[in-house]
UniProtKB/TrEMBL annotation:
Protein name: Methyltransferase family protein
The keyword S-adenosyl-L-methionine is annotated on this UniProt entry: yes
Assigned keywords, A-Z: Methyltransferase, S-adenosyl-L-methionine, Transferase
Provenance organism: Flagellimonas meridianipacifica
Upper lineage: Bacteria, Pseudomonadati, Bacteroidota, Flavobacteriia, Flavobacteriales
GO terms assigned for molecular function: S-adenosylmethionine-dependent methyltransferase activity
SUPFAM superfamilies per record: S-adenosyl-L-methionine-dependent methyltransferases (SSF53335)
GO biological process terms on file: methylation
UniProt-listed Gene3D superfamilies: Vaccinia Virus protein VP39
InterPro entries, per database record: Methyltransf_11, SAM-dependent_MTases_sf
UniProt KW Transmembrane helix keyword: no
Residues annotated as domain Methyltransferase type: 66-157
């Protein structure tokens, strides 16, 4: 079957689900030689269906909130229902349309790196939101940009996973990582949906110590809020 290319795989899938045309899920292909599936119903989950890390992040959110990479808007809508002033931001046009259809009052269609219009009390980057940095070498610049979007007493709430567990361990406890790898958490992904494939993109899975080291170098305070059950964690960043 011929595969057609489409720049907004995620948006098309979210619109289909919202409009009652759900027949299959998004398939992800990665440089780790793994194929996985993103179940579309999961992207429309309620607060009760969210993992503890996401629930905790939403409980900690305060003031004016920017939900970075908002997707179908599940986090934003929960906060809006709780009375927060929240803006959902996503680079996917379809995702933004779904957020509007679901009742989110404030949305922005943009890459976070290109957005600098306002400052916020809380920046949310959930579902491995730090992955938007793409590569470890881009992390410092990415975090500096987020700092510019923060009010003086603001906070950045982000989660990620340390994927070192995915690599082979030898008898001495050492980890075998391919020699051409700059950092083991750098992954290239592409998504497929209904015979269409999106452009490949870089994604970063970041261990907490590397995050903290980078934060220290740019005068950001980095705190571990909670650890999950799958090598994941929630971190809180704030201005020193």
């Amino acid at each position: 079957m011929e595969v057609l290319f489409n720049k907004d795989i995620l948006g098309n899938a979210l619109l289909d689900y919202h409009d009652g045309r759900y027949s299959e899920d998004i398939v992800t292909l990665s440089s780790l030689d793994e194929q996985d599936v993103i179940p579309l119903p999961y992207l429309f989950r309620t607060f009760e269906q969210m993992p503890k890390i996401e629930q905790r992040a939403l409980e900690l959110a305060f003031g004016k909130v920017l939900d970075v990479g908002c997707g179908a808007g599940s986090h934003s809508l929960y906060l809006q229902e709780k009375g927060h002033t929240v803006t959902g931001l996503d680079s996917s046009y379809g995702a933004i349309e779904v957020c509007k259809l679901r009742g989110l009052k404030s949305v922005v269609h943009s890459e976070i790196q290109n957005y600098n219009d306002k400052q916020f009390d809380t920046l949310l980057l959930l579902m491995n939101g730090i992955g938007l940095a793409g590569k470890l070498s881009c992390l410092e610049g990415f975090l500096k940009h987020l700092k510019e979007l923060l009010k003086p007493d603001g906070q950045i709430l982000l989660d990620s996973s340390d994927i070192i567990y995915m690599f082979e361990q030898d008898e001495d406890g050492g980890i075998w990582i391919p020699g051409d790898t700059v950092y083991y958490g750098e992954v290239t992904f592409s998504m497929e949906y209904k015979g269409q494939r999106g452009e490949a993109f870089d994604w970063l899975y970041l261990d907490f110590n590397s995050l903290k080291e980078c934060c220290n170098s740019i005068d950001l305070k980095c705190e571990l809020v909670i650890s999950g059950e799958h090598y994941d964690y929630l971190a809180k960043l704030s201005l020193k």
